[in-house]
Amino acid sequence: MSGTGLTAVAAQIVVVISGAPLLAGWMRQVRARMEGRAGAGVLQPWRDTRKLLRKEPITPIGTGPAFRTAPALLVATTAVVAALVPLLSTTTPVSAHADLILVVALLALGTVALALAGLDSGTAFGGMGASREMTVAALVEPTILVAVFAFSIPAGSTNLAAIVAGAVREPSRLASPAGLLATAALAVAVLAETGRIPVDNPATHLELTMVHEAMVLEYSGPDLALVELGAQMRLTVLLGLLASLFAPWGIATDASWPALAVALAAFVVKVAVLGAVLAAAEVFWAKVRLFRVPELLAGSFLLALLAVTSSYFLSGE
Amino acid sequence: MPQHPAIREITHITASELPKYAGDLFAAGHRIALVAAHHDTEQAPGGRAVRVVYLFTSGPPDTRTELQVRLDADRPELPTLAHLSFPTGRFEREMRDLHGIVPLDHPLPQRLVRHFHWPKGWYPMRPDAGPPPPFAEQEGPYPFLEVEGDGVYEIPVGPVHAGLIEPGHFRFSVVGETILRLKARLWFVHKGIEKLFEGRTVEHGLPLAERISGDTAVGHALAYCLAIEEATGTHVPEPAQRARALLLELERLHNHTADLGALCNDVGHSILNAQAQRVREQLLRLNDEITGHRLLRGGVIPGGAVLRAIPDPARMRAVRDDLRQIADLALAHPTIRDRFTGTAQLTTDAARDLGCLGYIARASGLPTDARTAHPFHTHDQPPSPPVHTHGDVLARFLVRAEEIDTSTALITDLTAGLHPGATTTWPPLSSTEAPGSGVGIVEGWRGTITTRVELNADHTLARVKPVDPSFFNWPALPLALADTIVPDFPLTNKSFNLSYAGNDL
To answer: Is B336 in the A-facing interface, judged by CB distances under 8 Å?
Structure first.
């Protein structure tokens, strides 16, 4: 038990950290090819990280601990989330702690750390980005919570591992109206949380339109590498969580080596497919006006609420 | 057949008569096209003086009226016309900063062009200015109007930007995300182009004119050549004028194509940008075949034009169909349409008061077009420019998309009967006549370009004053942005797409 369990936890962290830049590169490549461009290749984010890590660290004058600790905090919280949530296996030594509220709180901690760092830089852009990010976060975090609650009602627990294990045993839970509504709500929340089109444009160079990028404009060198790695890891973890919740097939529910190997392959394929679908969808979308973002997120929150309600009534308890 | 160019009516008046004469011309529907100061020496016909030329134009019919005012060379002062016309007030500030001519009672006495490290009392356009001095202590602060109130903050942007754009400093006063006020500070790329023209031969002036604004090589070169030809009495044969009109439309086409794509890119829809850039690349290669230069340099020459190839009408139709499809896809996309509609409206009254030109004026309901107002050759079918009235980003997008249609039709029209090769009457055979002054007016892709030249007796350039439409259009940007949200600024800026280089000279 503990041998494979510990391996599963270690594998989740390693796969997320090493795979996150590859996922970002893969998504950019898919998008480039669909737009008729050659693209920079799947390995480009790793090459960027290597370049940034070789640079001299620079901290703006007048910034305090909030600015210096935020990149490490972002990566650390995301790494803990990667260890907790059931990406490869539902039975790990830490899966008893994989509580939904804890996971959302850890993600929020990373977001808040970056927003504080943006404010700490004392520039107009940092403050502007932080204010926009908080507006988005205030709507996204409850949506994630409520959407996953829709699944915790049939499972009778807010433990993510228990929810996923339950869904593997009873796949009919996923095809229920509650499951479909929650999927839609969570998908929109993930888009907003990771700063993708239509909420934010990760490829823009226009400072005034940025949300996430405006907060981190003052970072350079190794700090910037950490911030980018953190953002890529969040995308990977959230897509992985989405896959585990709504397409849990292949995930290891017992502690055998073959099951873990299958789970690893399934995880890579599922996240790659989700990433490709997201990148492809982004080609056809445009960024909405900033003031339309709350409307979009309020809509997704409503879906999540409907999911919880229908889950409550249809569970027949 | 109307005479080309139209005869300029020149009136010499005193400084005190200026407001009355200018007021009459404005009341008769003229616009100020250009104001240029000249430092006449003792050898000049009127003796030593500072001579200021006000060029007023209207059309159709093509009318050009000049007022010339002579001022004391040691203490040049002028009554201001700023209360009659806003752009004239800006020309006056430009003259004050570059020539030291004081507009009396000017309502906006702040510096406009002056770099803040230029030493006090140094005016680069004066004959005795000498080479640029080292940076000195700045001439007073450059105050930005501070907007006060609960929750108001400032966002300073630039002059160095993140993308490949020219330098300009923007100071936003913002509450929440809404822009209360925007101040654009320009002239970071003042290169002294007017000074560089002085003393050059006509042939050596041409490359400089082509480089005033890199994307407007044909527009500025043509305005320069038309002015030179008027000053020297050079006749340009009809095929060469047709070739010039063709090059002008080709320039409009590749710039509008880039803008269509860039507008889509700025709302995060990069696939249409990728497609528009693909078409633009085809056009640039076509330009290369026609003139030997991707941005059409070398096509327009004094006295004529050079074409290495004639564009194939079938190819132009293919480009037009491609661009139509791109524009239709953009307009059919609900998010893009929502982002464009109602964003950064410039009212017709504001556009008229500021003297806006080109697609910005036409998107705000003003049908200004120098191709019909000041034609340099007789079109078989004069272009009817598309006009929209909403003045928002959508209107500016639509005007561009429709101008692409008009331009491709015009190009196909103009290619009929054209043959590759050089047609020129330069240098002029009859040099009996003493060279004088000349004015060239051209509808460049951004709007009306006006260039006025004066030649020395030895046919070198005494003074060249180009005016890019961006000089008129820049003040419209902050006005259109009032009550727009900050994240829509880049989109608005792109929809105006003003030239920094052409403005800063």
So the answer is: yes
